[in-house]
Amino acid sequence: MKITPGKLAGLKAVSTESGTIAAAAMDQRGSLKKALAKESGHDVSDIMMEEFKGAVTEVLTPHASAILLDPQWGIEPSKKRSANAGLLLAYEESGYDNTRPGRLPDLLPLWSVRRLKEAGANCVKVLLYYTPRDTAEVNQEKHAFVERIGDECRTNDIPFFLEFVAYDVDGGDEKGLEFAKIKPEVVAASMAEFTQDRYGVDVMKVEIPVNMKFVKGSASYAGQTAYGKAEALDHFRVAAAAATKPFIYLSAGVSNEEFTESLEIAEQSEVQWAGVLCGRATWKNGIPVYAKNGVDAFRRWLETEGTTNIGNVNERLQAASSWFATYGVTSADALAVE
Hints:
The chain is an alpha/beta fold. 42% of the residues lie in helices and 12% in strands.
């Protein structure tokens, strides 16, 4: 396995010295606007979006190896990141095409991989709603979509992070018990699909393969059971075994406590994971602070509770492996093209 100079430089830029990825995520757009509007009681301006993202970037990146932002409201905030933190930029439109079945994705119309790189991105991230349970027609379209982005990233020699999020094709409750039962299968099958070289994915950004609220015996357990602790550990192992590329876990909007417990289960399962891209589990509870009291109060909240939250995640990252360990080497430079 060899990695081209641009991809190698990009991966090193978003990693810690030991090669793990301890990235913060602040690329939320539509969901963030709605949450801020709900808490503030009025429309959210572009200035507010940039101000919120800028505060998160400035305060949290000294504790992160990278920050994920969007090019719509994240370019100016990206300039506030700490010198130790690399930059990932999102390439997809917020949300998905809901005029056709299958949660089909769209890319930002005014951006390309070349333009994201010119804007300072060390890596490009794309979110895809995906389940192997959807129709062959829907999934073939998504496969071709990912292949095109992979080729675009190869041409521009920049790492491609693919985030795939499971959904219920029948429109059921994706936070409920029945979906929790099938989630491990969906996550594992999705990892098996996009780890293939044809897609050009360098790092998979994956969901925790279980819903911790349904793991009997966990601190997050809410009373209904989809799996016991031993089953949950096996689900982590089965999903990880499907991967031939490095993967990192996303927090998917759960609480800091639930996400950190998930990482503890990952450690207990002894799988080889390369880090996290963690957003709302770090800063979500600060939304009402910003909406009601302004940016200075929000910055103070980030310096206390937000910093504690990211510290909780970083503590669990001691169990993560370097991204290059996936390829059986002990340093990133061992993968360099000679």
